Automatic annotation (TrEMBL):
Phylogenetic placement of the source organism: Bacteria, Pseudomonadati, Bacteroidota, Flavobacteriia, Flavobacteriales
Listed name of the protein: Uncharacterized protein
InterPro entries the UniProt entry points to: AbiEi_2, WH_DNA-bd_sf
Database matches in Pfam families: AbiEi_2 (PF09952)
Length: 340
């Protein structure tokens, strides 16, 4: 079925390509094929988003030439794949292929995300609960009242989320002690990254600002012990020393009308600082990071990681992988170890 789907996608192109199947599942990739008599290693996915790219780069180092084929590939992911000279094709007839006997670059700007049926799992309020579960999967067995408190959502929202996770196969029950376990965590993380950036953050955005001239060059000296947590690029810069932030984001409980006075930030629709209110409880705004990170004034690494990979920026994606290796993988055993 995988080869049939891939063959159909090549037939959607405006010219003939000779495609043949050589082998299925060689231990690294889904298919080994030939395109115009040139051997190619192909990996098929339903969707490809920026958070998958580090995996594909690793696969491309093992199997060359390498092809990513997917029903849908985000624009940012396409840009990154092309920059890394990784071949791709999607179900909409868009392709970048640079082989000895086949050169293709087609971008019709017609690709759209795959629509799914309504789900109780991938809603903004459920996403706040999922954030807590990804931080600490053992919380799947916590009381709903506790999850409601730390997620800053209603008990009803927690109940719907948990039932949705069970119905959609992200939670399994162990028969021995009747406890639950979070499963398919790598897939859940992928979907939560989208949910965070497209739903949760916009809903919690206070506004866009810029630094005052006297503070622009000393951003890393600001907001220490002030109830403000850096996110995104500046948080990654503090944790890794690998990134020079160009876009800034932070979380604060400071009221909008006090931000200029208390934080010395200036409102600017074209500014480079996005300010959000936290989507977790207030009493976790400070001190939540000190037990496992060197900086206390940054948000949880899951948020930083999700913002970086969603940006599609190559340097951000490289930095996100560093964060994942050091802060996320050790705390979520088995998370994101499999292929996307």
């Amino acid at each position: 079925m995988e080869f049939v789907k891939l063959k159909d996608w090549f037939q959607n192109l405006d010219f003939e390509v000779a495609i043949k199947k050589i082998q299925s599942h060689d231990g690294v990739v889904d298919l080994v094929i030939s395109l115009n008599d040139e051997k190619v290693y192909a990996e098929l996915k339903r969707e490809v988003r920026p958070q998958h790219l580090a995996i594909f780069e690793g696969m491309a180092e093992q199997r060359t030439p390498f092809l990513v084929a997917a029903d849908y590939i985000t624009p940012n992911a396409k840009t990154h794949l092309k920059a890394k000279k990784i071949n791709y094709i999607d179900s909409f007839g868009n392709a970048y292929i640079d082989l000895t006997h086949l050169k293709v670059y087609i971008e019709k700007d017609n690709a759209r995300p795959i629509n799914s049926e309504h789900s109780n799992v991938f809603t903004p309020t459920a996403g706040q609960v999922i954030f807590q579960l990804l931080k600490n999967p053992e919380q799947i067995n916590a009381t709903q009242r506790h999850l409601s408190h730390v997620s800053n959502v209603s008990l009803g929202s927690v109940s719907k989320c948990l039932q949705g996770l069970i119905d959609e196969g992200y939670v399994a029950k162990w028969s021995e002690d009747q406890k639950y376990q979070l499963v398919r965590k790598e897939e859940l993380l992928d979907k939560w990254i989208i949910l965070l950036n497209e739903k949760i953050l916009p809903a919690h955005k206070i506004g866009t600002y810029k630094f005052s001239k006297s503070h622009a060059e000393r951003w890393n000296e600001q907001f220490i012990n002030s109830g403000v947590l850096w996110a995104g690029e500046p948080a990654a810069a503090l944790l890794t020393n690998y990134l020079n932030p160009e876009m800034f984001s932070l979380f604060t409980n400071t009221r909008k009308h006090n931000i200029t006075k208390d934080l010395r930030l200036l409102p600017d629709a074209n500014g480079d600082i996005n300010v959000y209110k936290p989507f977790w409880v207030d009493d976790e705004m400070m001190g939540q990071s000190k037990n496992y990170m060197s900086h206390e004034n940054v948000v949880h690494p899951l948020i930083i990681y999700a913002q970086l990979v969603y940006s599609g920026n190559n340097r951000n994606i490289e930095t996100a992988q560093l964060l994942f290796n050091e802060y996320i993988q050790p705390n979520l055993q088995g998370l994101f170890l499999s292929k996307p």
